[in-house]
Amino acid sequence: MFLSLSLICLTVAVLLAQVNKMTAKPIADAKAMKLQNAISEVVPAFDNDPIAEAFLMPDGQGDSLLVYPAKKGDEIVGYALNSFSTNGFSGNIQIMVGFDMEHRIVNYSVLQHGETPGLGSKMSEWFRDAAKPSQSIIGRDLSKGALAVSNDGGNVDAITASTITSRAFLEAINRAYAAYSGNMDATSGATQSESDTTGTTQSGSVTNISGETNDNDEQDITSQEGGNDNE
Amino acid sequence: MNDNLKVLINGIIKENPIFVLLLGMCPTLATTSSAINGMSMGLATMFVLICSNAVISMLKNLIPDMVRIPAYIVVIATFVTIIEMMMNAYVPALADSLGIFIPLIVVNCIVLGRAESFASKNSVISSVFDGIGIGLGFTFALSLLGAVRELLGTGQIFSLNIYPEQFGSLIFVLAPGAFIVLGYLIAIFNKLQKKEGTN
Amino acid sequence: MENKLVVSPSPHIHSGDTIQKNMYGVLIALIPAFLVALYVFRLDALIITALAVLFCVGFEYLIVKYMMKKTPTVLDGSAIITGVLLAFNVPSNLPVWILALGCLFAIGVVKLSFGGLGNNIFNPAIAGRIFLLISFPAQMTVWPAPETAFTIDAVSSATILGNLKLNPELLPSLQTMFLGTEAGSLGEMSALALLLGLGWLLWKKIITWHIPISIMATVAIFTGILYIFNPIPLYNPLIHLFSGGLMLGAVFMATDYVTSPMTKKGMLIYGVGIGFITIAIRLWGAYPEGVSFAILLMNAFTPLINNYTTPKRFGEVVKHG
What we know:
heterotrimer; C: 321 residues; two-stranded antiparallel sheet; 14 helices; 2 strands
């Protein structure tokens, strides 16, 4: 009895290992593809590999966000940030939002959410409806102040009957901007050497690092954070 | 062969897992927010059912009675893991929308129920037919439920517009709608079956 | 001849109460609230109420006659009350087709699917309102500003409870709430008018005090305790009593005979439960208003409450533990 159960388990393990081997690459490809699409949707055209160059930036609230720099040639044309909010109507909201170099929102895409279909789920389109400037956030310059829904005295119209979702969505955008502006400040004044950044490990809890993390990334992270600590 | 056909039909109508046996309610209610979701969930379950029925029927003399439940679960879990990996690899969008309910096929009582009550007592061929029958019944029920909910909730069936979306009642896409629609579908199914019985 | 010798089980003494008598009594009690709605929303209030009654009675007649193949009893007044209460629970500018769907759901699904009056588990009007609230949240949560208020230019206006959490500085005075010219659904305008209705119902002995008073007392005590420790508007018991659908729910919807417990003790448990759930949803829930959800939930508990509060039969030996 013990033997036969072990035998079954063993066979099954071998089988699953085979299937895993077979599907591992397509799964990774599909994930990378999704991320790639999300990034290219929200930043100006680029020709580098933002996923490989991703780094972490603190958002000023104890967490860090993944930042994907988009470069055309050697020049950075924008940043895509993987931001989130924990204050959604049901569960977390994860977005990818892109900024150009002038603090303006290029575009966004909603990566993951559990909002009510037909209500909160409208955020995927609502905030980029070019025909309705009072609700669209595309092209807004966040250096002039954080976004807020009009019910709270801001200048973005909330989704009808989904104020909570709208609020959470804008929170995620503002969080992304905090990390973005921190990065802009850091890159303009980041001249210090790498030697004084060895001990910094305050990268907080990042919800979803789906890019490939290699040694280069690690260095990027520490240097960026070191730069910010110096501010 | 005739018997196999009977087994097949039996699974779709007389022992329809959803409308008659009322088994596997959790994925039924949770994944049928649209017709396509319901159908893919049904097909995924059908795949697992057929494979696990076949394998368990093959192994029925090898598996000692004392450990049959763990053995069944291992077999079922294997096929569920396989289909989960396949879906993640080749239809990631669908895998995203079904989410946790694909891994949860493992604990779907239809699958274990058929293994225990049918596959472990019958030949491989008729077990496969039972898997197909029950699977089709499950898929049919889930697709129907999904289609009705999608139609009432968003005005579409399989994403085809039937009437403008703003006239849809959102409640049918949400959880309460699943219960209401399921209740009415079971009532209609019962009524139809009763009529058949008296004729 | 034969009719004079009817064999029937007890009770043999009839109080003279009939379904009709009680139902029309409730309708009379709803008149003050209706007058306030007319004053605030003018013609809209009349149209919505009339249409809701028409739809409810019409659907009941059609379904009973053609689907259930029984003699329709629409004139017992219960469908009329469902219509009026449903109308009182929606904004005055609700599109007619949404109202019709709500009536169809209340009558067809909630009432007749379970077998008609007396067999329904849930109060049809409440369930109809919740159906509409979940299905059409955008239309159901935009209230026209009352025409008699000072802000004439406002097309839509947040309710008191909506403002309570977000911007407490916009709250109207308690007097306004009590008399009723704030934004909101048709029938929940004036606490005073609804209390007049309660007075009538109690005087005519159509309902007893247990359910409405226990709901109001629970709400007042619960929020009162919080208010003592932290006196902010969100916890103000008077605001909670006089705003939203609390009065309407406590007086007219929670007291529905069919879906509320039968014993006095049961009624108290039921009322306290509604009070607690209402405040819990109002304070910590995502929805600003919780009365209808609270009533629906406690409706579901009613059979259980009835079971646990069965009175001792006369002469039954009390068990000694």
